[in-house]
Write a structure and sequence with these properties.
Order of helices and strands: EEHEEE
Low-confidence stretches: none
Mean pLDDT: 94
Strand content: 25-35%
Radius of gyration: 12 Å
Shape: globular
Length: 67
């Protein structure tokens, strides 16, 4: 199925959870990651339970250190 992640189209398997998506995108660490689906912020506690739907629009933010 097709979703949009930060304005880029992606194909993912049906019944894919937010946790599965994020683990694939950030294999080293999910620390400092925030996600919104269809302009609604999703709590970290929901990542494993929330199944993505066709045409969901995902916004990902990853905090970085630096100066």
């Amino acid at each position: 199925m097709e979703i949009t992640v930060n304005d880029q189209s992606r194909e993912i398997p049906d019944h894919y959870s937010v946790q599965q998506l994020l683990s694939g995108l950030f294999p080293d660490s999910l620390k400092g990651v925030a996600i919104a689906i269809n302009q609604s912020v999703l709590a970290r506690s929901e990542w494993g339970r929330r199944t993505l739907q066709p045409h969901d629009r995902i916004t990902l933010i990853k905090a970085t250190q630096g100066g």
